[in-house]
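Structure catalogue
Derive tokens from sequence
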Amino acid sequence: MATYVISDIHGEYERFMELLEEIELKDTDTLYVLGDVLDRGEHPIKVILKLMEMPNAFCIVGNHEVMALECLRFLCQEITDLAIEEVDAELLDNLVLWKYNGGDATIREFRALDPEMREEVLNFLEDFSLYEELTVGEKQYLLVHGGLGGFTPEKRIEEYSLHDLVWARPDYQKEYFVDTNLVTGHTPTQTIPENDNPGYIYKKYHHIAIDCGACFPGGRLAAICLETGEEFYSSDNNG
């Protein structure tokens, strides 16, 4: 039994399937997905439907799921005069922000689903957890999409806001914990200052950053096995 973590699939279905083959995921293994399954790539809903079939996969919410959930239920409605009247400034801002951040691919595939499957997808997304705390062997891990905004050593994980967990980015040059590894996505490792190997998993100061920019040209999808520290990568995005 092994524990694997990946993040920021962003609709890259083929790379996701390629990575599952690369790690030879078994039914007895556990896979954690650190959010941002949706948007940008060609097939975000196809990835979601695959994850829904995997009882050994557990998803943590990312900022792209937050943006999508703020809008998808509205998009499920029949467009009537009443529905249009209910579009307030906040919802309009959310729609604009989401589309700006690559929501079109999610909207396209979501609208192609029948109403029953749309509801199943929404319920699945709403069940994503905010974080996971794991003990693997003798090591402690905290899994979260973005980071710990407003970090202080004495703050309990339950005290962090949604924004702290899904939108904030850690200071990767600062050690947050001496006995816990903070595993994050959200920040492509190509953008981490002083990273000697940009575009690959970054490990330093008890940080493990695993977003390797799969949806961007030159990026790839990454996985790490928590028991062994072994890293796995999909093919590069040559788009």
Notes: The mean pLDDT is 93.
